[in-house]
Amino acid sequence: MSRPGRAGRLFRSLYARLALVYLASLIVMSLGTAWIAVGQFDHLGREWLQRSQLNLASNLKHVLEAPLSAGVDSAGTNEAAKRIMTINPALSLYVLDAHGKVIDAYGHGKCGVGQTISLTAIHELLSAMPMLPVYATVPCHGGKNVFSAAPVTIGPAHTPGYLFVVLEAKTHMSMVGMWQTSSISRSLLIAGGVALLLSAGLGLLLFALLTRRFSRLTRAVQRFARGDYSQRIEPVADDEIGQASRAFNELAATIEAQLGALRENDRQRRELVANLSHDFRTPLTSLRGYAQQLRAGLSSTEHNQREQLDAILNNVSRLSHLADQLSLLARVDVSERPLRIDTFPFAELAHDIAGKFGPQAHDAGVALSVECADTTLQVAADLEMIDRALTNLVDNALRATAPGGRVQIRAHAEAGDLAVSVIDDGVGLSAEELPLVTQRFYRTASGRTPGDGTGLGLAIVAEICERHDSRLTLVSTPGAGTQANFRLALA
Ligand SMILES: Nc1ncnc2c1ncn2[C@@H]1O[C@H](COP(=O)(O)OP(=O)(O)OP(=O)(O)O)[C@@H](O)[C@H]1O
Ligand SMILES: [Mg+2]
Question: How far apart are CA 54 and CA 65, in angstroms?
Answer without folding.
Answer: 18
